[in-house]
Amino acid sequence: MNIDRMGDIIAFVRTADARSFTVAAEQLGLSRSAVGKRIVRLEERLGLRLLHRTTRSVSLSDEGAAFYERCQRILADLDEAEAVMATRKEEPRGKLRLDVPVSFGRLHVLPILHRFMAEWPELVVNVSFNDRYVDLIEEGVDLAIRIGGAEDSRLIARTLAPHRLVTCATPEYLKAYGTPVNLNDLADHSCLAFIHGGRPAEWRFTRDGVIRSVPVHGRFCAGNAEALRDGVLAGYGIGQLATFLVGDDLRAGRLVPVLQEHATTGEPIRAVYPSPRHLSPKVRRFIDLIAENWSPSPDWDKR
């Protein structure tokens, strides 16, 4: 295979991954038209249409999907061969691009990351804090720590810890307004809601083995989980918060759990990364370090 054919295949795979000629061109350091010409040349050589193009999107044809899978294996084999032959030690180095949720990342990922960076001084880290789900491939992110989220066949996910929710309030609030003993009682309380998509998010409970969503209202709502926690601690009402956020408050007695028999769990906390066959040392070792710190159960869930 000559170098031009390999370049055509790489242009095709990058375009299929990004679903965009423009993004693929930026990644390859080529013009958009140069990437398009390479793929046209590849299609003409194969006698097949590999991509469907519209003015707004790019998608794989049936033949293109089959060819894409084969090309991915070829490129992964080349990457693996280079990794095996590399003379450099299997140590984390270079740039690690990491994406984490805002509150959870600051409270529980950054302390581990700081230790990781201290151990590996040749590592440079770029951290983005997002409560939206970024496209790791399109934005060039090596690793994301996510709480739930949609499945993506292009990514590998490894579960790291459970995500538990607790409904709670201060002892002073419960003394003044009473403790709810069933879900219907929440209608008589100030319930602090998280703002998602411009609207208060409903609370989730388990009753008779079925997940039930309950609309709530109260004196205070916020689009930031830590601000919501502060509102609950200020005595504005009852909140439903992640244990990773209020674990210390529960242990210290600053907050008291209620309706525990109806407690439910959210989607687990996962490490998510693009799926090459050879995972880089910086990503693999950081994931392993997080898993080691949060196993068998994370500190925030300990009583």
From TrEMBL:
Keyword field: DNA-binding, Transcription, Transcription regulation
Query: Which InterPro entries has this protein been placed in?
Result: LysR-type_TF_proteobact-type (IPR058163), LysR_HTH_N (IPR000847), LysR_subst-bd (IPR005119), WH-like_DNA-bd_sf (IPR036388), WH_DNA-bd_sf (IPR036390)
GO biological process per UniProt:
DNA-templated transcription
- Name one matching Pfam family: LysR_substrate
In this protein, which residues make up the domain named HTH lysR-type?
A: 1-61
MF terms from GO for this chain are:
DNA-binding transcription factor activity; sequence-specific DNA binding
Q: Where does the signal sequence lie?
A: none
The entry assigns this protein to a family as follows:
Belongs to the LysR transcriptional regulatory family.
Name used for this protein in its record: Transcriptional regulator
The protein's organism comes out as Paracoccus halophilus
